Amino acid sequence: MNLTLNSTSNCLRLGINTWMPHIFILKHTKPYVMVGSMVEIMKIITDKLDVCWEWILANDLKFGIELPNKTWSGLIGQLTRNEIDVTAAPLTMSDSRSKVIDFSVPLYIDVQAIAHKAPGLESDILGFIKPYSYLSSRHSEQQCLVSLYVDLLSSTKYV
């Protein structure tokens, strides 16, 4: 397999950032020391491609956002400026990112949710009045009228 590298050292430049528990950077100065599942996956990929590799830390320790001047920060910026060849970081696929970088098939899919405190029971001195609010009493009045109308129709004898 042929692989075109953008660096002058002919080694694959792997952009990284801490992503617990998949990448944990133990030493933030060269030579970087990292542990985690994505570190092992990238070692397997580079071994299979039979290429040398070097870790390059995200220059601003960010994954990347689009700036007002239409450039990118973080690892995405480093990819667009050819400072790194590939990243092993969790980048969310979005339309704006897809316009400037290519994504592989996902290696990891995460589900995110918003959490909040569950409501609890609390005392309310006026709680017994709440079933008789304007809307519920209005709804009850309409139900009574419909019932009365149906009763009237059913009691009327058509000749």
From TrEMBL:
Gene3D superfamilies: Periplasmic binding protein-like II. It is found in: Cell membrane. It comes from Halocaridina rubra (Hawaiian red shrimp). This is Ionotropic glutamate receptor L-glutamate and glycine-binding domain-containing protein. Residues 34-113 form the Ionotropic glutamate receptor L-glutamate and glycine-binding domain. GO terms for cellular component: plasma membrane. SUPFAM superfamilies: Periplasmic binding protein-like II. It is a multi-pass membrane protein. Keywords: Cell membrane, Glycoprotein, Ion channel, Ion transport, Ligand-gated ion channel, Membrane, Receptor, Transmembrane, Transmembrane helix, Transport. GO terms for molecular function: ligand-gated monoatomic ion channel activity.
